[in-house]
Amino acid sequence: MKEKLYFYYTNDLHSDFSQWPRTAGYLKDMKKNRIAREDAHYLVDVGDHMDRVHPISEASMGKANVKLLNEVGYDVITLGNNEGITLSHDDLYHLYDGAEFEVVCANLKHKEQNPPAWLHDTRIIQTESGVRIGMIGLTAPFNAFYGLLGWHLTSPFEELEKQLASLKKETDIIILLSHLGISEDEAIARKFPDIDVIIGGHTHHLLRTGEYVNNSLLTAAGKHCMYVGEVILTYDHDKKELIHKEAYTTDVSSYPEDEDTRGLLAELEKEASGILGTEVVYLEEGFQADWFSDVPMMQDLTETVRKWTAADASLLNAGLLLDGLPKGMVTYGDIHRICPHPINPVVVHLRGDELIEVIRASLKKDFMEIQLKGFGFRGKVIGRMLFAGLSISTTLRANGTEAVTGVTFCDGSAVEKQKTYRIATADTFTFGRLLPEIAKSEMKQYFLPEFLRDLLLDTLRNKTPQP
Q: Domain 5'-Nucleotidase C-terminal spans what residues (predicted)?
């Protein structure tokens, strides 16, 4: 007898709830169809369902996302970095207390050897016909962040070496839920042929019909759940082996919305509005945002970051403030709206010559106009870089570009080219190659769980003494 097993998956929603009712509608319809046909079927998510950019996720610290997953009827999920490192230790520890699904993440460990009850390395699901499916989850090992929050991430490869031997003995099929990215998934497939399917995420790649690497079928459905993935496995009960694997993705961006999901989102939005409506500061005067000018409020925030981190100097990009605020009472929701990024402060060690190069690069027009997507940034463009603790002299060239002519510290002392300085900035610039000198710094000190918006609130409170 040959039996088909169906797996529907999502990845990297990033709290794009404008799309979620369509995604939920499609998944519910697929479940209904499979139940009618008596087919074995499962719903899985591969992480970054939550993103604190959205007020609902911010107000609930991700627990609203869990309610949404429960409402659709998920079976197994793993964590993404947005669940893992943008929440405080306690908020992550209790994030899935109300989950009606299994959570697998083999490389997430609790530093005090006291893991939450919901956290499992692997889970084995058995179909009614007796097929045993092993599920293992892995997430991106950002230990520089996790370590500050009371967690530790083991190496995904070492964890697979440890877990696969027993899974192979106890299961008929092994599926990896990977929030590691396409390059890591391909490397895992080459090294571990016992993994039948790798359902991936993190790098937002879209594999419309999957791809084979070694013995593993790799699949992923892009970002924001505009696509839903489907894996179909054919198991031969007579041979007692998996004989065929297929993977597809379906564009659900125009699928009819599910009314129950829309209703739940409306309830969650109302709850979030109440929580975020808390008044936090009164402004005696308002301020405007301008991504390409030296905005006084951004300058004040840059100085706050310098003092708060006890750095020699600091630099922040004006694109961090999406909007200004008028005179009057400000709520936490207002702070979140104008600075929604899950970005932490960081201090990096730079030599004087590296610092000068960072300043020169950051003031180039092309850099300021980068429409950045990712690395925690949830704005439009990087914008102009502002500095605290430094005095920057520039001149306009004949072609209209700005050139740096001098850099000193505000006390008048020179920047010594071979001396190492502690420079505070947004952790965005420690990733990728936006500012290579910062990204390659061998000494990075991240500050968690505070986001830059927390320091923005401190800045506003200090600027306007409260009664």
A: 291-428
Asked whether residue 296 falls in the same domain as residue 216, the answer is: no
Sign for the pseudo-dihedral over CA of 213, 218, 222, 228: positive
Helix-then-strand count for the chain, H and E: 15, 24
Farthest-apart Cα atoms in the chain, separation: 82
- pLDDT, tens digit, 9 for 90 and up, residues 102-122: 999 999 999 999 999 999 999
In eight-state DSSP terms, residue 316 is: E
SS3 labels along 254-298: CCCCCHHHHHHHHHHHHHHHHHHCCEEEEECCCECCCCCCCCHHH
Neighbours of 44 (CB within 10 A): 24
How many domains does the chain divide into? 2
CATH at residue 367? 3.90.780.10
344-387 per-position pLDDT tens digit = 999 999 999 999 999 999 999 999 999 998 889 999 999 999 99
Question: Which helix (H) or strand (E) segment is 87 a member of?
Answer: none
Give the mean pLDDT of 9-24: 98
Examine the domain organization and report whether 292 and 342 are in the same domain: yes
Tell me whether the omega of the peptide bond preceding residue 326 falls within 30 degrees of 0, making it cis. no
- Alpha-helical regions (H) of 147-291: 156-170, 182-191, 259-276
CB 252 within 8 A of CB 227: yes
CA–CA distances in Å: residue 140 to residues 15, 107, 114, 157, 439? 19, 9, 21, 12, 18
> Does residue 285 share a domain with residue 231?
no
Long-range contacts of 413-420 (CB under 8 A, 24+ apart): 415/352, 415/355, 415/356, 415/390, 416/352, 417/351, 417/352, 417/353, 417/356, 418/351, 418/352, 418/353, 419/351, 419/352, 420/349, 420/350, 420/351
Cβ-contact 351, 420 below 8 angstroms: yes
Q: How confident is the model at residue 432 (pLDDT cuts 50, 70, 90)?
A: confident
